[in-house]
Write a structure and sequence with these properties.
The protein has 272 residues and is α/β, with parallel strands linked by helices. The strands form two sheets. It has a seven-stranded mixed sheet with strand order 5-4-3-6-7-10-9. It has a three-stranded antiparallel sheet with strand order 1-2-8, with no helix packed on it.
Length: 272
């Protein structure tokens, strides 16, 4: 990991090659899908967190007047939350299997299986774009944001969620922070994400600590997979003593990330 002394951005150099990343993004990448019951619990948890994101976007645009694009939409839970609030919806999902499941769930071919680069969407089509837990995975975040800007209509809104170097979890765990993973290529502070958004032609930027709906079971299994000295041991002990009905109860948790909301400016600022 390297860190920029000016903006505090951290990044992997060299980045892992495509074969390494492909081995990581396998069938077992997401926690909580050992069986149908676990998959349904994870889906409900995803929907509850997605509702928070959609509510934040709905406070900045009129849902019945714009189409929303979610990049990295998984099985479509967040898109369903958006549609319930009146948005027309589209999605992009790199996993063909997940994209197919999302389209079945939505009852329409709204999700493109592929990447942002291969998506067949016209410039200026979307009034809102959501990319939650995505930008840290892309090899070139600046190009990624410029492509999003191209898809947004004038005054369109972008909501980003990404692990935050300013978060309490990172300050507590330091080099053992559970977000330090091979597949996370970039790590942003509030300063770094603001500078990047400004450079890519966004304005009215607001950056907030992110919150997610999680369960004790999910948190404990996360610490089991991504080991943190002492905390992983304590999490394992906690999971053994917590009753099942409490282990799967939804909790609103101040997570390890940030939420950035920004509006497309009239013209992009030149790169520096």
């Amino acid at each position: 990991l390297y860190a920029c002394p000016e903006c505090t951005l951290e990044f992997l150099d060299p980045q892992p090659d495509a074969s390494v990343l492909a081995s990581i993004y396998g069938q077992d990448y997401f926690l909580g899908e050992q069986d149908d019951a676990a998959a349904k619990r994870r889906s409900r948890m995803k929907s509850a967190t997605g509702a928070l994101y959609i509510d934040a976007i709905a406070r900045t645009v009129h849902p019945d007047q714009v189409e929303l694009l979610e990049i990295g939409c998984g099985h479509g839970e967040v898109l369903m939350e958006a549609r319930r609030r009146g948005f027309r919806v589209s999605g992009i999902e790199v996993s063909g299997h997940a994209a197919s499941m999302a389209n079945d769930y939505l009852g329409q071919p709204a999700v493109h299986a592929g990447s942002l680069e291969t998506a067949p969407f016209a410039a200026g089509r979307f009034g809102a774009v959501l990319a939650a837990d995505v930008i840290e995975h892309v090899p070139d975040p600046q190009t990624f944001l410029l492509e999003i800007r191209q898809l947004l209509s004038p005054g369109g809104v972008l909501l980003l969620v990404t692990p935050s170097l300013d978060s309490w979890t990172r300050r507590l765990m330091r080099s053992h922070w559970m977000e330090y993973k091979v597949e996370h290529l970039f790590y942003f502070s509030a300063v770094a994400i603001r500078l990047l958004l400004e450079r890519c032609g966004f304005e009215e930027i607001r950056i907030l600590p992110n919150r997610k709906v999680l369960t004790i079971d999910y948190i404990c299994r996360h610490f089991d997979r991504f080991r943190v000295p002492l905390l992983s041991t304590l999490a394992g002990l906690l999971r053994r003593v917590v009753p099942e009905r409490l282990a799967h109860r939804h909790l609103l948790v101040p997570a390890s990330g940030l939420m950035a909301i920004a509006r497309k400016a009239a013209e992009p600022r030149p790169s520096r």
